[in-house]
Amino acid sequence: MHKVLVSRCLLGQRVRYDGGAHGPFALLQRWQAEGRVVALCPEVAGGLPTPRAAAEIPAGQGAQVLDGLVPVVTIDGDDVSAAFIAGAEQALALVRQHGIRLALLKARSPSCGNRENYDGSFSGTQVAGEGVTAAALRRAGVQVFSEEELPAAEAALRGLEQV
To answer: Cβ distance 113 to 105 under 8 Å?
Structure first.
């Protein structure tokens, strides 16, 4: 049985930057009942509190944070890159520990966004990009989906199960 790395906020855990959560999602509840879910909030795992200041990546590119080219900054101007990178490293450790090949992460998060992210202006402007953890997972060969892609994630998991 394949395990799936899932953002804790999508499981109803109040770990979002504003202390909120998302869900419940029927698919994730089923995966939890099946024992598939490995839950992680990369930002909390990296040492950030809940609640915490909103953070964004200039140009929305998590891979550039991993490469040391741009920081993750809070709305107050603080550089929180180290915490975001530490959270990504925690995710990679879980991937190795559990043989994870699929992740379901929070859309548009500076850690977890897999297709779009905010541009770093704190204006709500979205750009094509990914979060720090999503970029690290993608580099490691993990398929990354968001809660907006539940049917595709389920299909990908079925495909892994058939191999």
So the answer is: yes
Largest CA distance in the chain: 48
**Pairing verdict, β 143-146 and 73-74:** unpaired
Pick the closest to residue 68 from 119, 132, 112 (CA basis). 132
- How far apart are alpha carbons 19 and 9 in whole angstroms? 9
pLDDT in tens, 51-75: 999 999 999 999 999 999 999 999 9
Residue with tokens 């990914």: 130
Torsion of CA 137, 139, 142, 148, to 10 degrees: 70
Give phi and psi for 44, each to the nearest 5. -70, -40
Tell me the two tokens of residue 92: 């990679």
Could you count the other beta carbons within 10 Å of the beta carbon of residue 121? 10
Number of domains in the chain: 1
Instruction: Please say whether the beta carbons of 4 and 35 come within 8 A.
Output: no
pLDDT digits (tens, 9 = 90+) for 22-50: 998 999 999 999 999 999 999 999 999 99
The boundaries of the domain holding residue 136 are 4-162
